[in-house]
Amino acid sequence: MEDSKLKQFTSSLGTNLSRYSMLIALVAVMVFFGVTTKNHVFLVPENVSNLILQNAYVVILAVGMLLCILTGGNIDLSVGSVVGFIGALAGQLIIVNKMNVYVAIALCLVAGILIGMWQGFWIAYISIPPFIVTLTGMLLFRGLTLVTLNGLTLSQFPASYLSLSTGFFGDFFAVSGFNLTCMLVGVAAAFIFVIMQIFGRINKVKKGYETGHFLGFLFKIIIIPAVILVIAYTLARYKGIPTVLLILSIIVLVYAYITNKTVAGRYLYALGGNQKAARLSGIDTKKVFFLAYTNMSFLAAVAALVYVAYLQSAAPTYGTGFELDAIGACFIGGASAYGGIGTVGGVLIGAIFMGVLNNGMSLNGIASDWQQIVKGLVLLFAVAFDVVSKRKTK
Amino acid sequence: MAKTLLEMKNITKLFPGVKALDDVNLVVEEGEVHALVGENGAGKSTLMNVLSGIYGHGTYEGDILFNGELCKFKEIRDSEAKGIVIIHQELALVPYLSIGENMFLGNERGSALNVDWDATYHEADKLLRIVGLQESSRTLIKDIGVGKQQLVEIAKALGKKVKLLILDEPTASLNENDSKKLLGLIQDLQKKGVTSIMISHKLNEINYVADRITILRDGATIETLDKTVDTITEDRIIKGMVGRELTDRFPKRTPYIGDVAFAVKDWTVYHPVYTERKVVDDVSINVRKGEILGIAGLMGAGRTELVMSVFGKAYGVGIKGELEKDGKPLVLHNIYQAIREKVAYITEDRKGDGLILGSTIIDNVTLAKMSKVSKRGQIDTDLEVNVAKSYRDKLRIKCSSVQQLAGNLSGGNQQKVLLSKWMFTDPDIMILDEPTRGIDVGAKYEIYGIMNDLAAEGKSIIMISSELPEILGMCDRIYVMNEGKIVGELSHDEASQEVIMGMILSASKGA
Question: Which whole-number Å values give the CA distances from A151 to A232, A318, A322, in the listed order?
């Protein structure tokens, strides 16, 4: 009796560990950089704040890329060029034409949606493989970026624009050196998370539904609030909550909700799981493809607006290679290369993983050529580890 | 007395949590056709995988003696070196390579750096003639039918100097004609000294071709029947398989048949690629409330194409004709509309285009009618779980929980999930395409029971099946289809296997 209980305990520990393997690996890498960087500069509040500003675009693009990958392992190669083009457009409208910032942002987002509809049309309704359509998009929009900018770099965005993305929320309390508002928001977020989890579980038990193992539940309601609190505390010791963190939170929450709890999300998974079965279930598969790619370019536009604000300029080379960051984040985050499998939460971890690697290696003074080599290998081993650990639990 | 070719002694194979084989014994004599039967999950395929080295020596307990010699196969190559060749149910041929290239794949003529293509095709052609194929070995695999592909697999085995040929469900996807040819070939090879082990669900074929029959149940050997000693009947085999007498293979029902519920009139459909080819030719059929209607015919008769084109134009181009439901005209432009108008089509290929194997039972059950479990696009996941559970209980789906992935269920249970999915759409008209293909006797009986219940609720059931006994046992009325046309209509009492085959054959001659 005791023996079987112990066995059950260890096996559930095992499945929980493998489920959170990427999260654990991420923590390990962060600790590693924390220890190895000079004066532990990696974990200094200013750097954590920077990490968020630097990598906001990866998270935004990766969430969009996940939806494309879910439809059947399809990727979007054009996102880097779309980021470049929308960035150039923003520069042209705001810096050169001195347009109202909000109007310019709205125009850029509409342009992103139109680009997505253009690509979605060829993919969904003419049935050209997404790989090819977005490859042409990669050339097309890079070219348009150069045309828009005349090959030049545009700077300086007005402060009214920059504050929307690279700014920080003010503090309502006057505690010097510590942003109390930020800390309180963090505490509130952690508290709400725990309450929602506990109520969710009680509700499930009440209705007699199956609940996950208690250990996994405990892990979840301890680790995640702890992470939120640590981040809030760290940010509070710098300038507080970056505006972009709010944008990211909204995007992550909204898309997590869409993929989990809406019919549209279910259709995405169904399409990737078995396209024929989805079609014979009355799902308009073409529409799902169309919307996934339209959404991708919309999010690429959001990423572009955030990115040019971060660099305070628009240049022809911006966005080069971003598609690979986004795709890498998805696969590190556990999305299946065949579609139908993957979560927003996983992709978020994958994106942070990529960002942490970039940032930590730069701080360690590793040259960018070696950074690429390390990144490539880490990507490979991360995914291999995931594949092998999943196979074992099967 | 023939000499013993193969002896598998006290084979036990454990999977995590399951004893797949429990002290199984199998003796095969040289030159015989030995059938291996049992319900799904009885351990037939596992036993053959142990024999062929897919589960290597050391992963199981017990001994394998081949030609009196103790064998310890580590992988397939070891067993093939001894002349044991297995042909799996899912054929392992590469569609875009030629027949010859496929036959000598991994066993190329010439040397590794210089493949001798002349020798390859010459030898391949010779082997093809032996199995009765007239095709050139330069033909691509994708251009020949499944029946011929099966023969290519056998020719490939002959190329490996096969002594013991293992066939896993060789006729599962073949029509009656091709099946007969294949069984004939197995008998020809028997005369040439090739011993065969055949796994099959089709008891009539086993009865026809096998010399001895070993029955497995729940991972254990039940008995071995010998044609020369025992009187073997299908009922006798079934009794061994299920451990009880199945007094009737089809559950009894008293039909209450109402008015015409659904009618298809002057329906013509063209092939989606070869647009000048008529696949369905001026077909008119109808089905009544509470009726189980059968559509019989050979494979390729156009039955699936007919019902799929009716189901929201899911197949074909240039569709002409009219539909009527409850006496009112009906137009179905797409599948979504068809589902809304309470028509359901349950596909013949449950793995390929029926279920999402990587998704849970819950997700599969609600997929075709998400509007019933969602409000303004937001899913009520609690409700979904309850829906899935109610179907699990109602249809007795065996699963660890409704969160289990559809891909991890047995064939019979997958079919029940698929039925649940379409019952959830509240259809009036249910079209079932080969509803019992590849599932075992017990599960078949349950599926028939579900169909009867649905008919009793007043739904109209249209069943397509290639197994005539099933059509005869279940249907109130039968249409016979051949080459895109309806060639006959029979009531339950008029119908017999002979009459139906006669209609098909005379129609083919007339054409």
Answer: 41, 12, 20
Write the DSSP assignment of A300-352 as a string of letters. HHHHHHHHHHHHTEE-TTTTTTHHHHHHHHHHHTT--TTSS---HHHHHHHHH
A316 confidence band (pLDDT: 50, 70, 90): very high
Beta carbons of B298 and B177 less than 8 angstroms apart = yes
CATH class of A39-167+242-393: mainly alpha
* B346 → chain A, closest CA residue: A280
ipTM over 0.90: no
Report the distance separating Cα B363 and Cα B23, nearest Å.
39
Cis bond before residue A156 (omega within 30° of 0): yes
Tokens of B420: 């649940």
pLDDT for the residue A386: 66
- Whole-angstrom distance, CA of residue A72 vs CA of residue A67: 9
Cβ contacts of A185 within 8 Å, gap of 6 or more: A232, A241
Q: What domains, with CATH codes, occur in chain B?
A: 1-83+163-170+194-247 (3.40.50.300), 289-315+334-510 (3.40.50.300)
pLDDT at position A8, please?
A: 56
State residue A352's pLDDT score. Answer: 92
Which of A270, A273, A279 is nearest residue B335 as measured by Cβ atoms? A279
**Residue pair B87/B165 in contact by the 8 Å Cβ criterion:** yes
The residues spanned by each domain of chain A are 39-167+242-393, 169-241
Task: Give contacts of A264 with chain B, Cβ < 8 Å.
Answer: 377
**Those residues with Cβ within 8 angstroms of residue A75's Cβ, 6 or more apart along the chain or in another chain:** A65, A68, A69, A130, A131, A134, A323, A327
Q: Say which of A266, A278, A282 has its CB closest to residue B379.
A: A266
B355:A269 CB<8 A: no
Report the C-alpha gap between B386 and B402 in whole angstroms. 9
Sign of CA dihedral B133, B138, B143, B146: positive
Q: What three-state secondary structure class fits A262? A: strand
**Phi, psi values for residue A291, rounded to 5°:** -70, -40
Hey, are the CB atoms on B359 and A273 less than 8 Å from each other?
Answer: yes
How do beta strands B212-217 and B33-37 pair? Answer: parallel
Angstrom distance (rounded) from CA B265 to CA B312: 15
Half-sphere exposure of A200 (CA within 13 A, CB side): 12
Decide which of A184 and A206 is more confident: A184
Neighbours of A353 (CB within 10 A): 25
Contact residues, chain B, for A267 at CB < 8 Å: 370
pLDDT for residue B89? 76
